[in-house]
Amino acid sequence: MEKKFKRTLVTTALPYANGPVHIGHLAGVYVPADIYTRYLRLKGEEVIHIGGSDEHGVPITLKAKAEGITPQDVVDRYHSIIKKSFEEFGISFDIYSRTSSDIHTKTASEFFRKLYDKGVFIEKTTEQYYDEEAKQFLADRYITGTCPHCKNERAYGDQCEACGTSLNATDLINPKSAISGSVPVLRETKHWYLPLDKYEDFLRKWILEDHKEWKSNVYGQCKSWLDMGLQPRAVSRDLDWGVPVPVEGAEGKVLYVWFDAPIGYISNTKELLPDSWERWWKDPETKLVHFIGKDNIVFHCIVFPAMLKAEGSFILPENVPANEFLNLEGDKISTSRNWAVWLHEYLVDFPGKQDVLRYVLIANAPETKDNDFTWRDFQARNNNELVAVLGNFVNRAMVLTHKYFGGKVPACGELTEYDKETLDEFAGVKVELENYLENYRFRDALKEAMNLARIGNKYLADTEPWKLAKTDMSRVSTILNLALQISANLAIAFEPFLPFSAKKLRDMLNMTHAEWNLLGNTDILPEGQQLNQPVLLFEKIEDAQVEAQVQKLLDTKKANELKNHQAAPVRENIDFEDFMKLDIRVGKVLECQKVPKADKLLQFKIDDGLGGRTIVSGIAKHYNPEDLVGKQVCFVANLAPRKLKGIESQGMILSAEDADGKLVVVEPEQHVKPGSEVK
């Protein structure tokens, strides 16, 4: 039997404040959560949406150190960017706060202390790497070395990003401190551990027996973790950035970020509702739903519930509808490689098009498996669906009403069989949408909403009111009344998905209210209601706009390749006598021209100090001939002549190949006499 709740508490994974938000975050977490929250609000249900920035942990300290600023400077910068981006994009948080707030520090400290006083934690002394130069213990991310699996020389102490293997810092070959570059030593240190193994039976029953309705990807990952057997997990860290461990003898130690961050949901609710927060966290009639990405499943389904169970007074999540990952143009989104579509940049490049991105991300949502975002698909969905289907239908209904009825809702006369068939098609849309939305199937729900617009488009195309206007205005009146009623239904159905466009549509229709329970009705707009002037809901996205975005990604890929470029290995050694046989000289370019029917070749006339010579060189793709005239170049003077395209080449001009494949001619730093030897 389905449980009944009085209210719903929606939380979204706290984005890490060491970079902006990208489309992977939006598709995986924030757009689905916003749809769900807006839907519940539209139904008139009591719901709050809690968000905030995760501002502790090692990556933030590393970024601060690299930039020569404080960790607080880093999180202040990115918290501001993230919060502003979410606001502009229409993610409707009731609060968006942060884990560096005083209220969070207090809440997390009290939570830890309660578990500590109850004797929940295990105290353990272990050996960890210590940097004797920097005089501090090293978190896993502060240690680099060679991966024992793939031999990548830049692996971290917790993971090798080249092969994806999880590591312990002690697994690394030739470990080095990322702070000082010195070789770290092992030293003893004390930490507190949450004994997850003690909660294994509880978790097994709670998830595997009581929550079989969870999404298959979530349920499967939880089962895999439980079947492997849970182990105690450290809740503290040797670090100076974070919430201090609130017990004596814990100086220089902070709460591990995975323990501290989910408590941010509680502290942010406290900040929003200081007098009634417990009703949302401790009343069993509250439904708690965590929206997260798949990399956070273990923390929200196993670790955080174990923490809440250990504390004893909090409710547990009713559902954790985690999504898989969204890829970008066939490649994994990566913050470190800048391979992403950043929300704050999108909002600048595509002003007023929040709903286009929302639509595409929902349509491609990685709900049970990874999915891919491409700019071509983005353009096609906008032009072929939003513009050609939804926008086209609404615009035709509005324009025709203004043309024939002065912009007032016309009367609905007698319905034909076709009218009734059309109305029957969307009569069940409310039930269908509710079924999908309640079960977190947002992609299917969007299709159902768009199907309403398809029904409307077909209805107008089939009835052709612009032709009937010559002979039967009463029939036109009925057709446009129904078209406008469908438009009003669209304004309600799309509100959770496309809030900006839904508001635009409501304003055009002069709808004073949009309640979910009106969905499916055919008398939402009263006869005679004055409509406002029609405006286009969507506009076409041109090839040039998309090509600019694709080029931006190609430039990023090229920059990454250059950044990671390694020089080619040195060829096998030669004898000194062989080298001495080479006669390398400096010459001045007197003439230069392209060789006919040869894309790569340039023909040079060189002043070599000995009467001149001709050299043919394959650098035409890298230089304009006129730019080389007058330059001094280095060339091999004693290379046996050879014919290229019928021209005898008497030597070879020396060029250096850059990391991106560009050839650059080698020339002396100062002017020397033609024929000078290179020693």
From TrEMBL:
EC number from the UniProt entry: 6.1.1.10
InterPro entries in the cross-refs: aa-tRNA-synth_I_CS, Anticodon_Met, Met-tRNA-synth_bsu_C, Met-tRNA_ligase_1, Met-tRNA_synth, Methionyl/Leucyl_tRNA_Synth, MetRS_core, MetRS_Zn
GO molecular function terms attached to this record: ATP binding; metal ion binding; methionine-tRNA ligase activity; tRNA binding
Keywords from the named record: Aminoacyl-tRNA synthetase, ATP-binding, Cytoplasm, Ligase, Metal-binding, Nucleotide-binding, Protein biosynthesis, RNA-binding, tRNA-binding, Zinc
Domain of life: Bacteria
Subcellular location(s) of the protein: Cytoplasm
Motif segment ('HIGH' region): 15-25
Residue ranges annotated for the TRNA-binding domain, each copy included: 578-679
Amino-acid positions noted as binding ATP in the UniProt annotation, renumbered to this chain: 335
A GO BP annotation: methionyl-tRNA aminoacylation
Co-factor binding details: Binds 1 zinc ion per subunit.
Cofactors named for this entry: Zn(2+)
Reactions listed under catalytic activity: tRNA(Met) + L-methionine + ATP = L-methionyl-tRNA(Met) + AMP + diphosphate
NCBIfam families linked to this entry: metG, metG_C_term, PRK00133.1
Name of the protein: Methionine--tRNA ligase
Naturally occurring in which organism (per UniProt): Coprobacter fastidiosus NSB1 = JCM 33896
